[in-house]
Amino acid sequence: MSASDYLGYVAALCSTSAYAPQVIKAWRTRRTKDISLKAFSVLVTGQCLWLTYGYLKGEWPLVASNMVTLCFTGTILYLKWCEPPDCKPEGRRSAPALGE
Known about the structure:
Blueprint: H1 3-17, H2 20-29, H3 37-57, H4 60-82
């Protein structure tokens, strides 16, 4: 295996594992209010395209890393879609309006 192969594997590991803490936090709290639905929709679409590209080219490390990343980001996107729009953490009040 060449140095560029190792570099690719390390890059895939870093990119894929970066989403794990966010998935864990979103799953435990069921809160995704601060996550952009549009941004994650585009991200998941891009990952689907990279997965397809890797499959068509026979690049199995690319397929594997994007499959795992897609599971993570897809979970976050699913939780974002399922979160009620007016969901607030318990015990917190909205900030007072200006002039109050």
